[in-house]
Amino acid sequence: MGAAHSNDLRIRVVAEVASGRMSRRQAAAHFRVSAASAIRWVELKEETGGISPRPRGGKSQSPLELHSVWLLDLTAREGDLTLAEIVRRILEGLNLSTTEASIRRFFIRHKISFKKNPACRRARAARHRRGAAMLEG
Description:
This protein is an all-alpha fold and 137 residues long. 59% of the residues lie in helices and 0% in strands.
């Protein structure tokens, strides 16, 4: 979707149509905008009295936010759950279908991060370091 046209351009298109000198489609061709835009601008002027662009987008709220207490309590009780297990628990406990990405965004919003446990490091990396130390010595 492109950027909104300037209010100046909108005013000129609507003024030409309002004056009766041009139809909506003629004004659109004259000002090099789409006919659909000219039609919407004139209708917007008639409905609201203004021509400013309507607000775009908006912030959608995650369905997980309604259950944030439940979800935060679950992760506090069982901190070793994977995202896939949390998805399954949400489906079973709340009957809410969600994705791992949605849960990840929820945790980011709530400033919760999961750090690796140092005891779970890969053994191969440790052997590799010892082997490299032996070769140097």
